Amino acid sequence: MSILAGLTGPADLRGLDEAQLAALASEIRETIITTVSRTGGHLGSSLGVVELSIALHRLLESPRDRIVWDTGHQAYPHKLLTGRLASFATLRQLGGMGGFPRRVESPHDVMDGGHAGTGLSIAEGLASARDIRHGLERVAVVVGDAALMSGLSLEALNDIGHRRSQMLIVLNDNEMSISPTVGAFSRYLSQIKLSTAWRQGRETYDSLIGGIPVVGPTALELSQRIRKSVVSFAQPGQLFEDLGITYIGVVPGHDLHALLETLGRALELKGPVIVHVRTQKGRGFRPAEADQISFHGAALPPMDLATHGKPQANGETVADDATPPDATTSAPAKNPNYTALFAAELIEAARVDRRIVAITAGMPTGTGLSRFEAEFPERFIDVGIAEQHAITMAAGLAIGGMRPVAAIYSTFLQRAFDQTVHDVCQNDLPVLIGVDRAGLVGEDGTSHQGMFTIPTQRQLPNLIVASPKDEQELRSLIRTALTQDHPFALHYPRDAGFGLPAIEPRPIPVGQGEVLREGRDVLFVGFGPIVARAMEAADRLTAEGWSVGVINARYAKPLDRQLVLDQARGKRLLVTFEESVVTGGFGSGVLEAVEEARIADPAYRELVVRIVGIPADRFVDHGSVGDLRRMLRLDADGLAAQVRETLAALHAQPGLQPSQPA
User: Fold this and answer.
1) What is the CATH number of domain 338-491?
2) Which of 278, 281, 371, 403 is catalytic?
3) Active site residue 415
4) Annotated catalytic residue 310
């Protein structure tokens, strides 16, 4: 009988023995692997914390006790242990279960996650709130070794050590970013620190020594220095001890017995405690164990379950001839995506211009810059999860005469707004910011949609904001950015390109749009790859008798104002298209230009402007990009429908000018 299927919640774990818990771990791995092979998702990180999730939920009483999952991409076992097996097959699908913790899904989800490095601050806030109201709940946070190096995490650690709030920090170390343990001596010292006798004896000893007349304070200081020296030699956690956080480690992260023993005793210690747990990404699925980089992100390589088998209780896999053939998934051939083309063009430019330096914030593979690193390792910089530092460092490189290119996902670039304003734009430096994953991203949901960057950037002095209509124009805009001396934000989507034949990329004058087709009745003005869908919508309306003109803006800032006004003259309707939130974005810039022109020129006073994009004042949930575009009516059919509705509301007819009666 399935143990997982019989769980009603984490409280049921306390009725299972360790053998049953090991069997449960195997079931959880099998469920995750089978589901993610169909839906995609963060496989490697979730497989790595199965035993850790079981141990935490057995020892703590969620949701009364609070378990915070930093980033949240490793929370699939947590979801299965908290009664969500029945809906797990809908993972990351439109209307289904989210790929990150979500408070609307379960009271066991403490916060909506998605960005790394937030967990420690959230956990300290929970612990402080508990202490202020004299609560009794326990607080635990699981943070990865990469997220621990983010600036926000380091700020939180400093404050946690200062405030000494009672909380458990689990450092999930799966990349060996933290210095390795010395060995048996380290484990022995951890056991001593966990013992009641050690804690009481240390306090008594310090009190006695410190109370000796004259020499007491000096002797106590010497004694404490010797203690710290021993800990520093034997363990990699002296940084945490210096901050005032008790460090325990390193604990084998797939040994349930060791986890239960260590975490259980750590929860009894006073003040903040960090338990360093060593795990293996992809544990239980051999391809993920062997290729941790490819199986880290949500877009996974093809997974053949028939070949690689099912996980066993010890985390290994064995072949299973009974696995049905349809469990094997294969990805259809696609055109290269914008990310890959951005990296390829940057490499070509760097072969000629030795000033070009590529920067990533912990995402060399996701941004495609790992290819740049392979060719120009001396001109590649990975700062880790520190977007603020990436942008300010780029400013320093530019001041030093280099041509820095920082490729950062749109959703993560939100973190570096002040650095973009103060360090790059105020100094008017030639920094190229590659805004990857601009627009709808898809299954990762609310925390990852790249929908807020255009409005934030459009207000900034000196910054040029551009986006291509296709992959070949992307190459030309890269060349444009590298041949001028101002900050340049180049937005491009997660999408595959259109498969266009290669052309010789040439710089495009800054602020110059292009007319793709002429029209008499309606004018479309698009920004970015949505222009292709706007062209399809124009074809549909043309078939219905409308004469539709289309402009590819290329630049949201500076806008080709005169081109737009010239093409808009005499039209009944102007429609802007963008895959971004409509408030303050590209369409707002076009509207501002038209409103200014209305004052002086009567020809524009009857022109109606409709802004089409992602609706304002809401987040966009998870689902495939195609599903989300259909839902938001940003596919070609949806764009055409929105224009038809506007024309109907205006009682407009094809061929009639604004001043003509219907």
Assistant:
1) 3.40.50.970
2) 281
3) yes
4) no
